[in-house]
Amino acid sequence: MKKKSLVLAISMVICIPGIFAQADMQETVAMIKKNLTESKEKIKNYEWIETTTTSYKGEQKSVKQNQCYYSVDGKLTKVATGATTDPGKTPGGLRGKVVANKKEEMADYIKAAIAKIQTYLPPDAGKIQQIYAGGTVTIQVLEPGKKFKLNFPDYNEKGDMLSISVDKVNQKIMALAVTTSVDNPNEKVVFNITYSDLPDGTQYASSTILDAQPKEVKIVIENSGYKKAAGK
User: Fold this and answer.
1) Higher pLDDT residue, 19 or 110?
2) Could you tell me if 208 and 117 are in contact, meaning their C-beta atoms sit under 8 angstroms apart?
3) Looking at the chain, which terminus has fewer C-beta neighbours within 10 angstroms, N or C?
4) Cβ neighbours for 63, distance < 8 A, ≥ 6 positions apart
5) Residue 43 CB: number of other CB atoms within 10 A?
6) Strand pairing category for 172-181 and 217-228
7) What's the domain count of the chain?
């Protein structure tokens, strides 16, 4: 009888952490979805400046700046500002053609990489729920009872990973991390997004850094200068 009681007690001790982890995951997923849904609507009341800096082999190549806002039909609109700089002139002759082709190749890659980033920003609450319901989400404890990281595999495509770090106490998203590919499934790229919040609780991606090591390309996108849009 004592042996059976001991086995039962040990089993309960083993199961309790799993139960708590599952409860934490369920509550955290619900918080993430609520935050994403509310912030997606609130951000439409703002306008801001988006600055994109691209580097190749450690050398800065261009800086592009857009004023961003949502039009009356709810679409995100970006207008280039005078702060945009281009990579400079291309030399002439055969060498110039080689350089021009390389620049065009890199420009296409950078355009595709930025477009890929936008497919994750902001994460879609519906996809979050779908992956969670599929039972493939894992949770990492960053700070017991306070901060967690949830991993959502195959978020956009097979083999990619979206990780969301959250501050559960303050009900905020802290950061995103994405592992995916741009033009070659065998060449993985990583981008990390830092989240910030506005006075009304709206959360947004304040900084995105994409490090495409296979191409020696680095892209940094910063969003700043948020203010209420005219008429909002």
Assistant:
1) 110
2) yes
3) N
4) 51, 52, 53, 54, 83, 84, 85
5) 20
6) unpaired
7) 1
CA angle 136, 159, 120 (to 5 degrees): 85
Closest-CA residue to 225 (of 206, 211, 208):
206
Residue-range definition of the domain harbouring residue 61: 2-228
φ and ψ at 41, to 5 degrees?
A: -80, -45
Q: Is 73 helix (H, G, I), strand (E, B) or coil?
A: coil
Q: CA–CA separation, 160 vs 29, rounded Å? A: 19
Residue whose token pair is 């039962």 = 8
The Cβ of residue 31 has, within 10 Å, a number of other Cβ atoms equal to 17
Structure confidence at residue 92 (pLDDT): 52
For 30-81, write each residue's pLDDT tens digit: 999 999 999 999 999 999 999 999 998 899 989 999 999 999 998 999 999 9
Please say whether the beta carbons of 139 and 158 come within 8 A.
Answer: no
Question: How much is the pLDDT for 6?
Answer: 43
Peptide bond before residue 91 is cis, with ω within 30 degrees of 0: no
Q: Cβ-count burial of 142 within 10 angstroms (0-12 exposed, 13-18 middle, 19+ buried)?
A: middle
